[in-house]
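Posting this for the archive.
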Amino acid sequence: MGAWTLDDISWDRFDQSKVDPDILSIVKAAGLVEHNGADYAQYLCRVFHDDPDFQVIALRWGTEEIQHGEALARWAQLADPSYDALAASQRFTAGFRVDVAAETSIRGSRAGEMLARCMVEVGTSSYYSALAEAVDEPVLRDICRRIAADEFRHYKLFYTTLKRLLATEKLSLWRRLKIAFGRIIEADDDELAYAYYAANEGQTPYRRRRYAQAYARRAYAVYRLHHVERGIGMVMKAIGLSPTGRLSRVIAGGAWRFLRARAARLERAAA
């Protein structure tokens, strides 16, 4: 477990008047995705089947991810008493399952797997940091800060393992770039779109594009430039490039402009 539990959160500070409906909808979705940590932990344990020390790390990580989901679901039920988190979770797992049967990493190597996991932690740490700064509701702000701190620590755990593996597993810069940016692109896959659908709709037919855009329009709105700059720095570090050099700054600037342009397009489409 992490350094906190659900009992450490001051739930009595919840302020219904500061709940934003758009934020509520993406928090519901995030809570479902976090629960997939158990499945991903099983997958990592299979990939590292002969590495008991890393299996301990993976299982602890999975437990902390589940706790994130529980905290977000509990907040969502405070904000919307009609929300049935269990039913939403069942809808989600019925329509989206993580493949835990693989015996080897789908990234081609264990080092590649750790690089991909670093990319996930870049995304989640940036997202929850941005969300914590964007919300006014005090309990959710506290939860997001706690989760963000966990995700930064998870990044460090996976990065440390990556460095250890690179001592024996050769991974060219081109291969690192391909894995890293391939995993970033996968952030737009069915998992988030289906989670948004399962949490907020569930009864109408699922249309991936519609729900992916519904989630992205709300999620992109919480980011600010410094979140993107820090995230790109973490990406560059994991790839093996300077996190503070000119290239990092150029990429961060481009990523920020792309994000704002896409957010604007989604807003216009919704209007």
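The mean pLDDT is 92. The chain is about 70% helix and 0% strand.
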